């Protein structure tokens, strides 16, 4: 069992006003951030974890879908779970509209997919710095490891992040501290630098050994990831959305819908989303107000939601794609009901051929 904060620390390390040092840290719930917090707890430092709700966490989406057969571990908030394991308070902060605008127009660009890792890190550390100032913290820490991630964790990017966050000298990376210049908390004696770590590179062997030593075994696998922005399929849909609409016009709801269903582009201003199961049918139904909705009645059928205003040809194509994924897909002609507000149309169409379908898939 993980020791509590008071049991883990060796006495009280004095801070600036002669009180216990208070560290504010980003806690995703992953192995690195959890270990970074534990390293400081071992020194008797008070730790408060911040967990940002960005709208792009896969676990949050699974929880929103509520599939009955889903593994509960894949739906939990890992930040809250890690906080409970460590015995520290966790503040869950809504990243809000400002985060969405950053994702759509990142100053430092995207990684391999749609991940604005440098801008994301700057955003969250800014938030942690604000929290530190408002709630009496002494410094900010993260679980970053030098050389672990190619975009955001090489030496140049670590220095850039600290500079742009405006807290130079007060940003501690406990896991890689001995590869980095000493911070003010170390130089002032608030943190014992000798008890910080010198981890670097992409291997997780040292972190996994520490997790065993401290009994921290219930954490998400590092390679799995929890961010939609780093997911290949989501990234294709994200960049398609940006290609067909200016960032200023894209709404939060449109990005939420990128997480669900099958996506097909029917024209520059028209796209459809086809649900894959009952949970996604229910999810899409929450966003159907004002949009064209297609469905084969009287049988197992996906809900298909249209973004934009389809013309007659595009309505017929959306109906044909809906028929393809319904239980009547083997029939030569299928009646599909299309609704928008109080309007209703019946479309008799053949299910689209798979070969033709691929030309529209995003």
Explain what this protein looks like in three dimensions:
- The chain is 36% helix and 15% strand.
- The protein is of the alpha/beta class and 362 residues long.
- It has two domains: 5-228, HUPs (Rossmann fold, 3-Layer(aba) Sandwich); 260-357, no CATH class.
- It has a six-stranded antiparallel β-sheet, with helices on one face. A five-stranded parallel β-sheet has the order 3-2-1-4-5, with helices on both faces.
- Helix 7 links the parallel strand 4 (139-141) and strand 5 (171-172).
- Helix 6 crosses helix 7 (155-165).
Short description:
The chain has 362 residues and is an alpha/beta fold. 36% of the residues lie in helices and 15% in strands. The chain has two domains: 5-228, Rossmann fold (3-Layer(aba) Sandwich), CATH 3.40.50; 260-357, no CATH class.
Helix content: 25-40%
Total number of distinct structural domains: 2
Measured distance between first and last alpha carbons: 47 Å
Flag low-confidence runs. 1-12
> Number of helix segments?
14
Order of helices and strands: HEHEHHEHHEHEHHHHEEHEEHEEH
Structural class comes to alpha/beta
Q: Tell me the CATH architecture of the largest domain.
A: 3-Layer(aba) Sandwich
* Sheet having the most strands: 6 strands, antiparallel
CATH fold topology of the largest domain:
Rossmann fold
Give the integer mean of the pLDDT values.
Answer: 92
Can you tell me the CATH class of the largest domain?
Alpha Beta
CATH superfamily label of the largest domain: HUPs
